[in-house]
């Protein structure tokens, strides 16, 4: 659903997010000139569909999304989670159909841009163009961590890695407050789709981690009682206090 009164880019709420690097006035003015509006989505709403030619890119203003690939028999692999400041649609070639789907995990608010305008953005605003490249590179880094989980980590390590990664990203983007709890409706089915585990194995692993006081995970929230202990267990490096760009 289109937003009747979108935010003015000059007063973008992402400017106040401690984990994101604020845009200067000229950059905000440039983005204001090419912004097409904003859209609201509810949990489960599709944003991009696999094999469709997307005409737009989106910046996440509020909420959390999931990116996934589907098989013909209905199974799917969740590839990544997307948080405020992330650029949606960047993960595929500009002139090809989307290789993946994106849907809202929570209610979400997204800025809308024409894909074609980003060709001009890269030419006309090198700093913003560099930031687009940085975001793409950072996405690759996140995927490397998830691939290592699928290939090398055992079930407990996979679940703990995902929990601390989600909480770390949520804190840095303002989705969660400083602390050890993230309120997010990730089901055990979605965890299994992300981690390549059966639903039964996922359930047993979560219960075991709860008993060991490493991770407490239900359908409404994730609690990591000791982030440093959990990070060491999963070989996860907590993010620094540096800021990431957004578009």
UniProtKB/TrEMBL annotation:
Keyword DNA-binding belongs to the record: yes
Domain HTH crp-type residue range list: 153-228
SMART domains per record: cNMP (SM00100), HTH_CRP (SM00419)
Boundaries of every Cyclic nucleotide-binding domain copy: 19-122
Gene Ontology MF annotations: DNA binding; DNA-binding transcription factor activity
Pfam families reported for this sequence: cNMP_binding, HTH_Crp_2
GO cellular component: cytosol
Keywords: DNA-binding, Transcription, Transcription regulation
InterPro entries assigned: cNMP-bd_dom (IPR000595), cNMP-bd_dom_sf (IPR018490), Env_Response_Regulators (IPR050397), HTH_CRP (IPR012318), RmlC-like_jellyroll (IPR014710), WH-like_DNA-bd_sf (IPR036388), WH_DNA-bd_sf (IPR036390)
UniProt xrefs under PANTHER family: CRP FAMILY TRANSCRIPTIONAL REGULATORY PROTEIN (PTHR24567), DNA-BINDING TRANSCRIPTIONAL DUAL REGULATOR CRP (PTHR24567:SF68)
Protein name per its UniProtKB record: Cyclic nucleotide-binding domain-containing protein
Organism for this UniProt entry: Qipengyuania vulgaris
């Amino acid at each position: 659903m289109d937003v009747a009164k979108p935010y003015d880019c000059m007063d973008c709420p992402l400017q106040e997010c401690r984990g994101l690097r604020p845009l200067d006035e000229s950059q905000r003015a440039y983005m204001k000139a090419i912004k097409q509006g904003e859209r609201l989505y509810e949990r489960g709403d599709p944003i991009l569909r696999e094999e469709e030619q997307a005409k737009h890119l989106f910046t996440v203003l509020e909420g959390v999304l999931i990116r996934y690939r589907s098989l013909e028999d209905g199974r799917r692999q969740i590839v990544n989670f997307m948080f405020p400041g992330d650029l949606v649609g960047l993960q595929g070639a500009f002139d090809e159909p989307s290789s993946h789907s994106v849907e809202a995990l929570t209610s979400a608010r997204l800025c809308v841009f024409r894909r074609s305008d980003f060709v001009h953005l890269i030419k006309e605003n090198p700093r913003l163009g560099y930031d687009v490249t940085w975001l793409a590179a950072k996405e690759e880094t996140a995927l490397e961590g998830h691939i290592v989980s699928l290939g090398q980590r055992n079930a407990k390590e996979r679940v703990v890695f995902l929990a601390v990664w989600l909480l770390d990203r949520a804190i840095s983007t303002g989705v969660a407050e400083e602390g050890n709890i993230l309120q997010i409706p990730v089901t055990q089915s979605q965890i299994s789709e992300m981690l390549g585990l059966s639903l039964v194995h996922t359930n047993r692993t979560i219960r075991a981690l709860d008993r060991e006081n490493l991770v407490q995970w239900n359908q409404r929230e994730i609690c990591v009682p000791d982030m440093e202990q959990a990070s060491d267990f999963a070989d996860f490096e907590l993010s620094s206090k540096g800021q990431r760009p957004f578009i």
